[in-house]
Write a structure and sequence with these properties.
The protein has six helices and no strands. The protein has one domain: Growth Hormone, Chain: A (Up-down Bundle), CATH 1.20.1250. α1 packs parallel to α3 and α2 runs antiparallel to α6. The chain has 159 residues and is mainly alpha-helical.
């Protein structure tokens, strides 16, 4: 049941991500995804089945929204001749830390309560969300479609 809730959240997130990018932009969508990661983990701490169902559903939005937003922003702001290199670096930075996190989690889970693992994960998601929220990048156009000329992609909106 928990995996089904996670999957339902992920499917809905995947189906709504394009619409969300046009409404809020990539940075805000990534921030929403990160905040879903915080909330999803916090809902798992009490070990209450209803809370866990909601937590897994909410957590299902976290990775799709964050990953799709980051990859979309990288593609949109990168000149065509560098698309391959940027895609490789972004993919590496998004997914390489997973193996280290899984190894650390496997070592930690046997030593401490799962509640501390979820709390630690929520704090990591929160720290990343705060970093993204306070980091300012003036000149990045938040929503694609504001410019009909591809040469203006990534340029500040002059209106």
């Amino acid at each position: 049941m928990l995996t089904a809730a996670l999957g339902a959240g992920s499917i809905i997130a995947g189906l709504t991500s394009s619409w969300m990018i046009t409404k809020v932009g990539e940075r805000r969508l990534a921030l929403l995804g990160l905040l879903n990661g915080v909330l999803g983990n916090l809902l798992l701490i009490p070990a209450w089945m209803a809370g866990a169902m909601v937590g897994f559903f909410v957590f299902g939005f976290a990775l799709p929204w964050t990953v799709i937003a980051v990859i979309n922003l990288g593609q949109r702001l990168t000149p065509n001749e560098f698309q391959g290199q940027v895609a490789a670096v972004v993919t590496f930075l998004l997914f390489a830390p997973q193996s280290l996190a899984q190894a650390a989690g496997a070592g930690i889970i046997g030593q401490v309560s799962f509640r501390y693992v979820y709390l630690g994960e929520a704090l990591a998601w929160l720290a990343t969300a705060i970093w993204l929220g306070v980091r300012s990048r003036p000149g990045i156009v938040e929503a694609p479609g504001k410019h009909s000329d591809p040469a203006q992609v990534g340029q500040a909106d002059s209106s």
